């Protein structure tokens, strides 16, 4: 029950309260670049959700078994060569994650190209660019922080990317819906293009700010002994 | 052999000169306002000047090091693997910058959180490696990276100035607005980032359209 409550808090936190795009500003490039048409935006959102989930799973595996201080695989090799103490490969984490992300994007690209050629065409350059989508690396880094801290297992590490990706999809689809209408509006000349898109995103972010109070209420409702339970939502939040 | 390989192409270095690259990066091809690259840090760490400038310093370090490094190895690059090589080079330098920040500016490193490692996926750096570093010599690459770092400083500095002064009434933590002026708390929250950047971009667009409009009249 406690695990379920924790997962629900992480899910709501990642998708709504701390939306990846509108609160953490990760994944802004596709959010502004591929949000002109509804179906492309939906496709992009789902592609990112898929990649982010695969990358999240792989980064949990890597962190748990290889990268974290005292990880079993790293330790086995370290002790085999006679090193003292525990192995700590966490300095390699960024390079390892970028590798994992690039590989997952490559797989998704091959899959989409083979089975959904029209979708592949409409993505254009943005599909390979998912590699440099900050949202994915961001999810990997959050997972790493929590796994190294000993707070999260596999379930939590999968919930965050899935719902973070769905939150991204929600944001980009909302944005596309607004921009389709915006094409018909008479926008002042200096605001045309990127500025009006950013202003729209600002107003969307304002709306999502309304979810902020939800976290605390939800936590109280789900965990009666909230005082001694580790704060799941607080751990998703990043001090800025 | 490596030395001969490195020195030969300096003579046949074509494309814009180092000075042209340097100037272009500051304003004419400003990464933030003209190319709309690196939006993630521009929005995320600009609630105040101090984190914004730390971010610029870290990004400048990575940008200059990675661009010069890519320029030095540009004859070994294979076309289909070049993006991967760029990314790994950048990731290495970001790890160095991250460790340095954690060692000497620990509170700032904690405050910036995941946005320091996210420099890896900052499009400005990959764009500069692709456009300049992989084609021209190390000196030009250095000038190009330095110019773009200055341009990035202008971008982040302007957004952070607007947000910190309007949102908290301070600049670099020093009070600049009298207490009677109401604070726009929204400016230091996420929506304020989008709105401040949008209005600054509109201002730049408006300023650029001005001479053209005069000519029409």
Characterization of this structure:
The complex is a heterodimer of chains A (240) and B (217). Chain A contains eleven helices and no strands. In chain A, helix 7 packs antiparallel against helix 8. Chain A is mostly helical and 240 residues long. The longest helix of chain A is centred in the first third of the chain and has 30 residues. Chain B has nine helices and two strands; from the N terminus they run ααααααααββα. In chain B, strand 1 and strand 2 form a beta hairpin. With 217 residues, chain B is an all-alpha fold. Chain B has a domain of 139 residues. In chain B, helix 5 crosses helix 6. Classes of the chains: A mainly alpha (240), B mainly alpha (217).
Please supply descriptive tags for the structure shown above:
heterodimer; A: 240 residues; mainly alpha; globular; B: 217 residues; two-stranded antiparallel ribbon; 9 helices; disordered N terminus
Record the SSE blueprint.
The complex is a heterodimer of chains A (240) and B (217).
Chain A: H1 2-17, H2 28-33, H3 38-67, H4 72-80, H5 93-115, H6 117-123, H7 134-148, H8 154-182, H9 194-209, H10 212-222, H11 232-236
Chain B: H1 2-11, H2 18-26, H3 39-44, H4 49-72, H5 82-104, H6 106-112, H7 123-133, H8 138-168, E1 170-171, E2 174-175, H9 190-216
Antiparallel strand pairs in B: 1-2
Helix pairs in contact in B: 2-8, 4-5, 4-7, 4-8, 5-6, 5-7, 7-8, 8-9
Number of strands of chain A: 0
Overall 3D shape of chain A: globular
**Proportion of residues in helical segments of chain A:** 55-70%
Largest sheet of chain A: none
Strand content of chain A: under 5%
* Terminus-to-terminus distance of chain B: 63 Å
Weakly predicted, low-confidence segments of chain B: 1-12
Task: Using the alpha-carbon principal axes, give the shape of chain B.
Answer: globular
Give the largest chain-chain interface (CB within 8 Å).
A-B, 47 and 45 residues
Ends apart, CA distance between termini of chain A: 32 Å
- SSE order of chain A, as H and E? HHHHHHHHHHH
Given as residue ranges, the uncertain stretches of chain A (5+ residues, pLDDT < 50) are 226-240
Mean pLDDT across the residues of chain A is 84
Strand content of chain B: under 5%
Largest sheet of chain B: 2 strands, antiparallel
- Percent of residues of chain B in helical segments? 55-70%
Tally of helical segments of chain A: 11
């Amino acid at each position: 029950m406690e695990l379920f409550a924790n997962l629900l808090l992480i899910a709501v936190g990642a998708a709504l309260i701390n939306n990846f795009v509108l609160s953490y500003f990760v994944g802004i490039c596709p959010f502004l670049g591929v949000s002109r048409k509804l179906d492309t935006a939906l496709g992009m959102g789902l592609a990112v959700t898929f990649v982010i989930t695969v990358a999240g799973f792989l980064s949990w595996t890597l962190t748990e078994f290889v990268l974290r201080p005292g990880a079993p695989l790293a330790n086995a090799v370290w002790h085999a060569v006679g090193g003292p103490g525990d192995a700590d490969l966490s300095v390699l984490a960024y390079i390892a994650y970028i590798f994992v992300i690039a590989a997952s994007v490559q797989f998704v690209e091959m899959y989409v190209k083979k089975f959904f050629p029209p979708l592949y065409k409409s993505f254009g350059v943005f599909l390979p660019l998912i590699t440099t989508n900050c949202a994915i690396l961001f999810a990997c880094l959050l997972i790493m922080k929590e796994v190294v801290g000993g707070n999260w297992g596999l379930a939590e590490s999968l919930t965050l990317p899935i719902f973070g990706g769905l939150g991204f999809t929600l944001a980009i689809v909302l944005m596309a819906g607004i921009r389709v209408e915006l094409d018909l509006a008479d926008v002042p000349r200096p605001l045309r293009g990127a500025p009006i898109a950013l202003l729209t995103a600002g107003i969307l972010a304002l709306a999502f700010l309304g979810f902020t109070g939800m976290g605390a209420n939800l936590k109280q409702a789900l965990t009666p002994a909230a005082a001694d339970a580790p704060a799941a939502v607080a751990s998703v939040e990043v001090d800025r | 052999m490596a030395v001969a390989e490195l020195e030969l192409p300096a003579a046949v270095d074509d494309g814009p000169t180092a000075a042209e690259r340097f100037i272009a990066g500051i304003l004419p091809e400003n990464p933030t306002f003209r190319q709309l690259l690196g939006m993630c840090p521009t929005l995320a760490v600009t609630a105040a000047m101090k984190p914004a400038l730390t971010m610029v310093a870290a990004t400048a370090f990575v940008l200059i090091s990675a661009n010069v490094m890519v320029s030095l190895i540009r004859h070994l690059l294979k076309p289909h693997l070049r993006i991967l090589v760029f990314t790994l080079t950048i990731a290495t330098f970001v790890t160095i910058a991250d460790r340095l920040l954690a060692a000497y500016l620990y509170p700032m490193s904690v405050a910036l959180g995941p946005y320091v490692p996210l420099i890896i996926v900052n499009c400005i750096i990959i764009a500069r490696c692709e456009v300049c570093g992989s084609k021209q010599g190390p000196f030009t690459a250095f000038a190009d990276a330095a110019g773009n770092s200055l341009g990035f400083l202008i971008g982040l500095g302007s957004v952070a100035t607007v947000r910190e002064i309007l949102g908290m009434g301070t600049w670099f933590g020093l009070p600049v607005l009298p207490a009677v002026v109401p604070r726009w708390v929204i400016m230091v929250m996420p929506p304020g980032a989008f709105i401040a950047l949008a209005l600054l971009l509109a201002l730049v667009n408006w300023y650029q359209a001005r001479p053209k409009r005069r000519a029409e009249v």
